């Protein structure tokens, strides 16, 4: 009689492990530095290299740490990013302990709230693929413009928190969470067999 219940239990367990492991979100400390600031002259591309070294997923978060009296984080358009234009941001965060939630796929552009800092490479792009792993940047050019200003403008999240707990290395957090879930799944599988 016990064998009849094992197959549905194993299928349910497999689905639980799969969906739980795919929902692990990570908080990344931007640049893995002490603070969001002007990159050192020895490593002026620290933010672009850091972004390229990470695989961001939907619902991950970015943590920007900086002295609030000395800087801010601006989410901007690609044009503003390329020109270090600080006058009309999509979002301005200036509390010094800023969390930005990656709530939809696409490319996100961030610059310092001080144009002179941005000109010294204090800026960041983050690419977030869709849940199936593909990435399609927003449409540009005449087709996007023909749809009107509202249709061509991507939606940006205005979600951030007042305070964040310090986290260890984001990659090891995701891996250790996945390992813990898989270990629990193996233990339940083993239990179901015997």
Automatic annotation (TrEMBL):
Membrane-spanning intervals of the chain: 175-193
Compartments where located: Endomembrane system; Membrane
Main location: membrane
Transmembrane found in the keyword field: yes
Keyword Membrane included in the entry's annotation: yes
CDD domains: OsENODL1_like
Signal peptide: 1-25
Top-level taxon in the UniProt lineage: Eukaryota
One Pfam family recorded for the sequence: Cu_bind_like
GO molecular function ontology, one term from the record: electron transfer activity
Domain called Phytocyanin: residue spans: 26-130
Family matches, as PANTHER family: BLUE COPPER PROTEIN (PTHR33021), EARLY NODULIN-LIKE PROTEIN 8 (PTHR33021:SF44)
The protein's name in its UniProt record: Early nodulin-like protein 1
Natural source organism: Rhynchospora pubera
């Amino acid at each position: 009689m016990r064998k009849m219940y094992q197959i549905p239990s194993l299928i349910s367990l497999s689905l639980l492990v799969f969906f739980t492991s795919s929902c692990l979100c990570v908080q990344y400390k931007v640049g893995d530095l002490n603070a969001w600031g002007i990159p050192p002259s020895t490593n002026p591309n620290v933010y672009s290299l850091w972004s390229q070294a990470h695989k961001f997923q939907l619902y991950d978060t970015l943590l920007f740490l900086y002295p609030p009296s000395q800087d801010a984080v601006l989410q901007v358009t690609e044009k503003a990013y390329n020109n270090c234009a600080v006058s009309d941001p999509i979002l301005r965060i200036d509390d010094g302990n800023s969390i930005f939630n990656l709530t939809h796929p696409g490319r996100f552009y961030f610059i310092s709230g001080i144009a002179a800092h941005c000109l010294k490479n204090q800026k960041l792009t983050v690419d977030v693929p869709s849940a199936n792993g593909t990435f399609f940047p927003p449409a540009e050019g005449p087709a996007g413009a023909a749809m009107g200003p509202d249709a061509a403008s991507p939606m940006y999240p205005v979600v951030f928190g007042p305070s964040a707990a310090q986290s260890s290395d984001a990659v090891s957090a995701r891996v250790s969470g996945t390992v813990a879930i898989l270990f629990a799944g193996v233990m339940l599988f083993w239990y179901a067999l015997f």
